[in-house]
Structure formats: structure tokens, C-alpha cells
Specification:
Number of helices: 4
Strand content: 25-35%
Helix content: 10-25%
Structural class: alpha+beta
Distance between the termini: 47 Å
Order of helices and strands: HHEEEHHEEEEEEEEEEEEE
Strand order of the largest sheet: 7-6-16-15-12-13
Radius of gyration: 21 Å
Amino acid sequence: MGVLKRFEQRLEGLVNGTFAKVFKSEVQPVEIAGALQRECDNNATIWNRERTVVPNDFIVELSTGDYERLSPYSGQLGDELAGLVRDYAKQQRYSFMGPIKVHLEKAEDLDTGLYRVRSRTLAASTSQPQAPQGGYGYPPVAAPPMPAGPPPGAPGHRPGAPAGAAGPAAPGGGPRRHWIEINGTRHQISRPTLVLGRSTEADVRIDDPGVSRRHCEIRTGTPSTIQDLGSTNGIVVDGQHTTRATLRDGSRIVVGSTTIIYRQAEG
């Protein structure tokens, strides 16, 4: 059973109690729950093969009318939404830097039925060094530096070659490498173009029903770019829906429900 379905069933058990009035609101809790899932996907930061960090502190902005309807139950609703985020993260193998919190806030510029979600990563208060923390709506934690070249035995590694020696030469003589990371798996880009899609003929196959057979194409260069190939659901690059965009190291690409991190480095 999906995370959202379990969330709906938990709330249904409360409809005759404190949540009876909540469901009269124009904004339904399940809509907010889906938005929180997307917020995690769109702001996932890959630290290494075993760890992808997502935000743990969320603010849901509501119109005045919706806020007045929901705010009396904000504590219980916040707990339920935090539980959903926790369940979804377990399913996606995401991790957090601290406890999960969901807050409701009133936004005067929103009409009834509209909402916004902002997020950030807040590290738990411990004696260990804290990771840098960013403001709501920004990637909060910088991923640690990637290794200079593929590890021994990985695709693209050449025995006896110095670290960072793979890939085409960049202007000025230094080698430049390009790769993408999907769910912790690293895919080297060894050609000028890389097609991503659900088809087995794509250079990198993404098993996601929201991804078209030939969804988009990455073109390496100075600068590197990504181009939508007429997909059904389009692409989101660094939070912006687009058909074409310039890529930088660390650019976050969302296709369907899959997040892709673009990487490049020069020797």
C-alpha cells in the first residue's frame, strides 16, 4: 500500500473527531501530503552511494481562510504530515539531519485553495560538527566533494591512470568529466550527448511511469545543457519547469518522480 493511501486511511479514522472540520477546507490534507513528498524529491541531496539527505523542516503556507480552518488542528495535522514524510523517506531510502517538523503559516497573498511549501534542513543539536544550514526553499546542505575519478572496478576506470584522468580534455589542458547520479548510482557521460528515458534504447534507462520513452537529452560542452525531447511531463531544472536549461555542477533535474543530479569536474 502506498504512503499516501495509508495517510488517507489514518485521517479517515479521525474524520468523525477532531478532523471533521479540517475536511471542509478548500485545501485537503492529502494535497499537502503530496506536496511534501515532491518537496523531498526536488530537494534531495546525494552525499554518497549510501546516503541521500532531504529536508526535515517544512512550512506550509495557506490562504487566510484555509489557515483559519486548519490552524486549530495544526499540532495533530503537523504530526500526521511529519509521519507521512518519515514513511515516504523510508520507502525512498532518504535520510534526515534532524527531527521532522511541519508547520502551518498564513500567507496573505494566497487565494483560498492555494498553498506553498517551503523547506530546509536543520541538523539536530549534538556535540558533533553541524552541516551548513540554508534558508527555506534553498538546497540546505552541500554534498561532500566527489572523488576525482571513478574508483577501481567502476565503469570508466583505467588501470594505472591517475585520478581524474578520465573524460575529454577541457579548455586549458585539464581533463573534464561529466556524470549524473540517480538514486545513488553514478552514470558516466562519455559521449557528447546522453539520452534519458524509459525506453531500453535510451542511453540511461529510467524505470518511472512519469518518464517518456525518450524524455530528455544532456549535451556536454561549455556550458553543458539539457533539452526536453517532447516528453509528456516535461523537466524541472533547479526548481524551474523548462524545455531547455544550462547545467552547472550540482544541478538538480526532476523527470517524472525521479531526481537526477548533474556533476562535472575539471582536473
